[in-house]
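Hey team,

Sharing the Uroporphyrinogen-III synthase run so nobody has to redo it. Sequence (232 residues) first:
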Amino acid sequence: MKTLIWTRSKADWPRDRQLFSDPSSVMHLPLTRQVALPLCDWPTGDGAIITSPKGAKLLLDNPEAVARLQNRQIYTFSSRVAQVMAMFAVNLLPGDRAQAMMPDLIKALREKSGTHVFLSAEKSAYPIADVLKSQGVDCVHYPIYRTEAEDHDGLAEDPRLKIGGVVCLASPSAVRAWFKLVQQNGLDRRAWDLVALGPSTADEIERSHEQPIIADETNLSSLVKKAEACLS
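Structure output:
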């Protein structure tokens, strides 16, 4: 029987495992971890753009960040970010990814004052601040966390990895970490179907010269459904 690998973090697994028809058959192999970065000074302004649920949680864990966000309107396309940041004023914009929300975001921020902040990973999948500036909206990107690959050296003899199967990938950083793991452990990359959560993850897979399978919708339930279908 082929292996189904789930690659999201250890912290996510208690909730994620409920999405599977048989969680006990899933190999949970976290590929990345998030490391909080020191806060820089933010300029005065009305808006804060947050698109990562993990980034939102890290902000809530930082009392200084919470204090800074009290007087800002938060903009996001992610319903999960909106849930995490429910204690603040959140503007949930239409769209299933950053690029899709940009027309509404540009329109909203043009009516606000000061310099807006885009709070995200050190390497953001989509350059929101640059796009806003190109449209005349003053915005600065402030990295709030760094995504690092987990160390999985020494997995070459794991029988589950020898038979191949399906890998669920939910972010570009997870894709990069997967190919690093494959190289470190001498795995056969041709033995694995790579299922991507959304377009940015799929693009990263293609940059590594592989053909992604993309979830029908950009949510975790759809990712699991597509992966399980690949095994059937």
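The chain has two domains: 3-31+150-231, 36-146.

Ping me if you want the raw files.
A.
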